[in-house]
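User: Can you recover a sequence for this backbone? Please restate the input before giving your answer.

Assistant: Of course. Working from this structure:
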């Protein structure tokens, strides 16, 4: 006499196959979102006219991933967490450059994804600072450097053990160096201009 119930085995097989389909869909959505966010950030850095379109595509993918996770929260894994933080970085950069403020935290999956995204945003702002200086726009470079410092000071309070905000400590260590590098670039670029202006004013 069989010790396994064939009907139960068939039901279990069907359940696991359905779970695998959902898991694969989440993985695909996460990959698509991460890729879309990367393209959006690159376009924003280049001030590409397509950046609005790329950000909107990322928003739609983010909404789709959120919907899937709400239906099956038990399938949340590192891929999805990475995708959510990537979106927080990209969308925050978009809104910050466009409106001079951050989007509401409630627009993101959870506080952790928003905080991790902001930690990565500091690196994107550092690139912006250098680009502004190369373009001769020192005032905007100074403003964006001030954003870097404010973000760092704000999220440093969340430097909890890794089990709570995984990866944040490493990101903050990197951000400290980025801020020091940006400060050094600003000092070497802006102070000579200020001295030149004072010299010109004195000779006028």
């Amino acid at each position: 006499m069989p010790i396994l119930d064939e009907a139960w085995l068939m039901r279990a097989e069907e359940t696991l196959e359905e779970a695998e389909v959902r898991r694969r869909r989440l993985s695909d959505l996460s990959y698509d979102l991460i890729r879309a966010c990367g393209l959006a950030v690159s376009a924003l850095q280049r001030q590409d006219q397509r950046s609005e379109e790329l950000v909107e595509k990322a928003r739609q993918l983010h909404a789709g991933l959120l919907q899937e996770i709400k239906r099956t929260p038990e399938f949340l894994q590192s891929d999805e967490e990475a995708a959510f933080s990537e979106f927080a970085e990209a969308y925050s950069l978009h809104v910050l450059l466009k409106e001079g403020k951050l989007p509401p935290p409630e627009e993101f999956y959870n506080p952790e994804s928003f905080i991790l995204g902001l930690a990565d945003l500091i690196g994107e702002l550092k690139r912006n600072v250098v680009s502004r200086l190369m373009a001769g726009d020192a005032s905007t470079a100074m403003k964006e450097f001030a954003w870097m410092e404010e973000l760092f000071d704000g999220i440093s309070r969340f430097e909890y053990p890794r089990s709570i905000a995984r990866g944040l400590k490493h990101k903050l260590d990197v951000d400290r160096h980025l801020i020091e590098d940006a400060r050094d670039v600003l000092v070497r670029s802006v102070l000579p201009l200020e001295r030149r202006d004072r010299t010109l004013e004195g000779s006028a």
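That completes the design. The chain has two domains: 1-109, 110-204.
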